[in-house]
What we know:
The structure holds two protein chains of two kinds. Chain A is mostly helical. In chain A, 63% of the residues lie in helices and 5% in strands. Chain A is built from 25 helices and seven strands. Chain A has a five-stranded mixed beta sheet with strand order 4-3-5-7-6. Chain A is globular, with a radius of gyration of 26 Å. Chain A starts with 10 loop residues before the first helix and ends with a strand. In chain A, 50% of the residues are buried. Chain B is an alpha+beta fold. In chain B, β6 and β7 (130-136) form a beta hairpin. The longest helix of chain B has 25 residues, at 3-27. The model of chain B has no long low-confidence stretch (mean pLDDT 86). The A-B interface holds A 332, 336, 341-343, 385-387, 389, 391, 393-394, 449, 452-453, 595-596, 632-633, 635-638, 640, 643-644, 647-648, 650-651 and B 2, 4-5, 7-8, 11, 26-27, 29, 31-35, 37-38, 40-42, 45-46, 49, 51, 54-55, 57-60, 64, 66, 71-72, 78, 80, 96, 158.
Amino acid sequence: MLVPRASRLPKGTVAVGAVALRVVALLALFIYxxxxxxxxxxxxxxxxxxxxxxxxxxxxxxxxxxxxxxxxRADFGLRAxxxxxxxxxxxxxxxxxxxxxxxxxxxxxxxGLVAYCAVAIKERSEGLRSLxxxxxxxxxxxxxxxxxGVVLIGAxxxxxxxxxxxxxxxxxxxxxxxxxxxxxxDTGTLVEPFxxxxxxxxxxxxxxxxxxxxxxxxxHLNTFDRGVCVVLLVALVLGHRHRGRRxxxxxxxxxxxxxxxxxxxxxxxxxxxxxxxxxxxxxxTLSFVRDxxxxxxxxxPVALVSAATCTLRQNYLSVPVxxxxxxxxxxxxxxxxxxxxxxxxxxxxxxxxxxLTLLALVPWLVLAYRSNDTFLFPMQVxxxxxxxxxxxxxxxFPQEIRFLFSVALENEPIRGLGVIALAGAMAKDDHxxxxxxxxxxxxxxxxxxxxxxxxxSDTGNLGRYLxxxxxxxxxxxxxxxxxxxxxxxxxxxxRAALGLAIVAMLAQFTHSREKSVKFFQTxxxxxxMQRRQSPPSLETLPHEAFMYPHIQSFVPAGETMAVMVDxxxxxxxxxxxxxxxxMPGFSSPxxxxxxxxxxxxxxxxxxxxxxxxxVFVRPEFSHWLYQREFWFARMFNExxxxxxxxxxxxxxxDSFTSLAKTRKVLHEEAGIVVLxxxxxxxxx
Amino acid sequence: xxxxxxxxxxxxxALLAVGFAGLGLACSKRVxxxxxxxxxxxxxxxxxxxxxxxxxxxxxxxxxYDDGWYPVEAEKKGDIxxxxxxxxxxxxxxxxxxxxxxxxxxxxxxxxxxxxFGSPPLLTLRWNGRRLETFLxxxxxxxxxxxxxxxxxxxxxxxxxMIETSTVGHDGDDLRDLGYALAxxxxxxxxxxxxx
Lengths: 684, 196
């Protein structure tokens, strides 16, 4: 039996000492990350800043916790998710008012850290309790504690590996996402009417990436999604409780092992692990609130997390909507069963929730309208080109069903998704909101909806788009089963659910083993390489960081320029109004960019849009996206989506090349041409 | 039934109605006129830049290579301008062809891998399951043309053109079932239809 050892110091003194240690450690980390006088490799600076961003999230979340649920203390993970959601709303408001900046990002994080310290001091005895829990468990079961330690080291390697991962996707990050981050920090807003990537998400992920940029260069932007969000996930799993019961450590270890060894199918800095973390947070928030809580405490955290989730990716939108709608229908049904149905009273809470969620989303919706003439793409198409239909005209209903099943059952990276989904359907969900069941149905709806709306896509890409909700569902399933008391798992169904979840996770280990080993080896190699790099200076910057500003200097300051280049994020977006033509064809302001009508129509269109200067890379010089021969071949590709997209690329490249013959070339460097569309080229 | 329960039932019906209306809207398809312009652009560029063969073997507005076809191959891998291109099929293949409501002529050019069979296979051509013709495949490259009457295909709707072969074979290490290699498919109005 465990007998508590008498402490030699009074409890209060130990608590003060522990909190003082935490605050001092945080201050030291802050000074290390932010003081340029301390020379350090970029890796360490970004890694430290990423940790500070996460703690700042927790600071805002703690503030929200004390404000709306003063009698109940949420764990670190939940608070961090709530705080990140609060910041998403603030960020949206700033961007909608063109008031975001690098300083705003720094101040946001600083304020969050102050809030964290203030709450830590206020709750000093709670911190001590957590410390005691860890000590008690370590004493009771050393082997298990060691196993948990190994998993946590795995999480740390994951985090550092993400910070050190220098890869970016030239088709997505280099031409679009990085440019959007740069636009947000340089101009304070996200107005980009020609950008398909801007149109296809509300912008929450870009805002989070911008929070990391004060102490991270673009080659370290994987820090947020693959690093900060993975640590957030670990915290969300470890902090979960249901009816006061934690997930047993064996189950936590198994689940964390499962999560940390899932093959990374993310191919860019768009929402992937962030979606995963926010769906787990949504499930956990809905599980956390209970009937006795004040109305605002019940709805505000749920509304904020839902809104933040919606801003990450457009295809996430349907999941919180359906999930929360169902949660309240379940509650309504339960009240009806009890015979205590008062519709007015029952509808008040979902109505307030819907109103608050919408209110939190308003800045992002306004911003979307400012940028792309749509409040909610794809419900309202805005600047999207209708001819770029993402549904195949020849696909038959059975083919759609076949496609849907292949997305669900051949899912990457969660190979056992079908088994876990079965476990989820069988698991006992006794919370009044039925968060697991609601999430399950919402995921199924999202799968059907996306498979139908995007028949031109393939199973791999749709699996990637649905990774967030699906991985969230898998985690929610294990959290629900794991926190149900074994002696209450009566009947075959519940025991089978437990068995299926364990089998699916173990099977996943077998499937992921090789990729995980490779991932951890690569992560360690990257960390080792990055830690030996010189501290950031002008000498460590890439050549493009000088070349692009030089090219830009040929366009008069303040003038509007349209750009189609490989790395537009090296331009200074505060000097000119820059319109990034990231994916030809998809998005352009009304009446729409003319295609297949020749270069003069294009020049006329730009003139009507107030664009005098055009900067583009010649196809024979483009590193990646704007190579004509690549797109010419894609016009005859097996995948229909490329046959739809490629003609627009070929036509736009041809039009710009023609304009370079008829319009005045102001400058040309490394194949990048600066054209004055208002001036004709001199006769040769 | 209590008032509250009746209200709940009405709410359910309203939700279902909204759901079905949304689904209906999501399912409705209207092809944008620019799609035809885009298709014409691709055809013109293919002709101008020596990629007509690739164009003819790629799914397009009026012909969609569906189940049963392997990807397009060229004599020189990846060469989109090659004049020697084909796509293999196994035992059966389907091409979804857009109807015109007028008498049409359908020509297929290709070959069967006779060296793998030893005897000529029987090829059957069907339209929406209806057998149009069966013939013994001749050796070497051949073109076979059939008439497709107007009553078989309504304007704008897609019909299934199926090629079936009686025999498939395996070539060396290639594990695919190889039955027939298509080098060109032509779908054009039948000028002779109605002539005495």
